[in-house]
Write a structure and sequence with these properties.
Elements: H1 3-24, H2 48-65, H3 73-99, H4 115-132, H5 138-155, H6 166-174, H7 193-212, H8 217-238, H9 251-274, H10 281-290, H11 293-309, H12 312-323, H13 327-351
């Protein structure tokens, strides 16, 4: 894969991470498009995390390709080391959120799961599957996982927006209520939904495999566009029985969001590679977020906690709100400022070509 193609992937990753920070860090009342759907349905906000998992599938293929997808002590060790590191960082963010308020030993109430924890589990599972399973069966494995998950949802009251939901029951049984997400009955990064999220990441892995087997850039672009279109159609057909739902990471949600991400990757590859568009300020902005994605995401989470605790958020928001009376627009502007601050930390890393690998 050429450097330009890696840049196109970094741009897509940067769009996704900048989007994750933007939608997570508004202040007060936000536009509905910048909030996650309450239950069934999908907003633009619901695209950013699934895009990241799809991209992680692509990146995992590129990473393991260097080892010819051969399982050995070194590769397995690196996979588990990275998995543990990412999971512990997520746990540390949850700890810091409580510790900054004075509860330095919140072991009885700390949330176990989270975004980073789901990333860790999906990375680990997909990496091991890629080393063990013949790659011509990867799509079969992904769809088998989605079928199994569908059956669990159908027979476990998986679309119930209350504690009777099987996802909520499993999380309660495994972690205990005090260690769960409490803003909704079902933890959006819970244990059961990770099955579907692993399939999601596998689809990204398969998309990269398909791209690497293409003979030229035009075929790669067409492959992404075709794969994306098929997944979107299949996903929306599935919504007749299984509505889109981020909270439970429904199978239809997997197919539609993977399809949209594949389409976007194809479009970016078309513009940057096939049409050979020159790098501009917008491309550079997204590359800043794309080359150090997890570092800047973790930084944004820590910053949000610090800003909230010490009143920095209010200090930034109040002058904005004084100029922009509408609460939603003021919140949006605050989120943009917050994202730009994160980008300011990433800019010197980009200029000096420093890659902080997590």
């Amino acid at each position: 894969m050429s450097n330009k193609r890696l840049i196109s992937l970094d741009v897509l990753r940067g769009i996704t991470v900048a989007g994750m920070i933007l939608v997570n860090d508004g202040y007060g009342e936000s536009f509905s498009t910048l909030r996650h759907s309450t239950w069934n349905g999908m907003t633009p906000c619901d695209l950013v995390f699934p895009f990241f998992l799809f991209i992680m599938g692509i990146s995992t293929y590129l990473s393991l390709r260097k080892y010819a997808f051969k399982a050995n002590k070194t590769v397995i060790g690196k996979i588990f080391k990275r998995t543990i590191l990412i999971f512990l960082i997520g746990l540390a963010i949850n700890w810091f959120d409580k510790a900054i308020g004075g509860d330095w030993l919140p072991w009885q109430t700390i949330r176990i799961m989270g975004v980073m924890q789901r990333i860790a589990l999906c990375y680990c599972a997909v990496s091991l599957i890629a080393l063990i399973v013949n790659h011509k069966y990867l799509l079969h494995v992904a769809f088998a996982l989605l079928i199994i998950y569908t059956l669990i949802l159908l027979y476990g009251n998986g679309y119930a927006q209350d504690a009777s939901n099987i996802a909520a029951r499993i999380d309660n049984a495994v972690f205990g209520y005090d260690h769960l997400y409490h803003k909704s009955p079902v933890d959006p990064e819970g244990l059961l939904g990770t099955i579907s999220a692993i399939a999601h990441t596998l689809l990204g892995f398969f998309a990269c495999k398909m791209m690497m087997e293409a003979k030229d850039t035009k075929e790669k672009v067409l492959g992404f566009l075709l794969f994306g279109g098929i997944l979107i159609i299949a996903g929306y057909l599935l919504t007749f029985g299984l509505p889109l739902n981020k909270r439970i990471w429904s199978p239809s949600y997997v197919l539609v969001t993977c399809g949209l991400c594949s389409l976007l990757q194809g479009i970016i590859m078309y513009l940057l590679d096939l049409r050979q568009r020159k790098q501009n300020a917008l491309t550079t902005f997204f590359l800043i977020f794309g080359i150090n994605p997890l570092f800047l995401y973790v930084l944004s989470e820590v910053m949000a906690i610090v800003f909230g605790h010490f009143g920095i958020s209010t200090m930034i928001y109040d002058p904005i709100h004084a100029v922009i009376a509408d609460n939603c627009w003021a919140s949006c502007c605050y989120a943009i400022v917050f994202t730009l601050i994160c980008g300011a930390f990433g800019y010197p890393l980009y200029k000096k070509k420093i890659y902080i690998k997590i």
